[in-house]
Amino acid sequence: MITSPTDATASLHHHAQSTSAVHVAQVSLMLAIAYFLLSFAYAALVLAANRKYAKPWPASRSLCWHAGMTLAAGSCVSPLIFQGSNGFARHMVAHLLLGMFVPLLLVYAAPVTLLLRSLPAPVARSFMRLLKRPVMRIIVHPAVGAIVNVGSMWTLYRTSLYAAMHELPVLYATVHVHFPAAGYLFTASVLRHDRWMHDWGFCNRIFWLIISMAGHGILSKGLFASPPAGVPADQAEFAARMMYYGGDVVEITLILILCYQRYHAPDRLKQSSVTSA
Question: Matching InterPro entries, A to Z (predicted)?
Answer without folding.
Answer: Caa3_assmbl_CtaG-rel
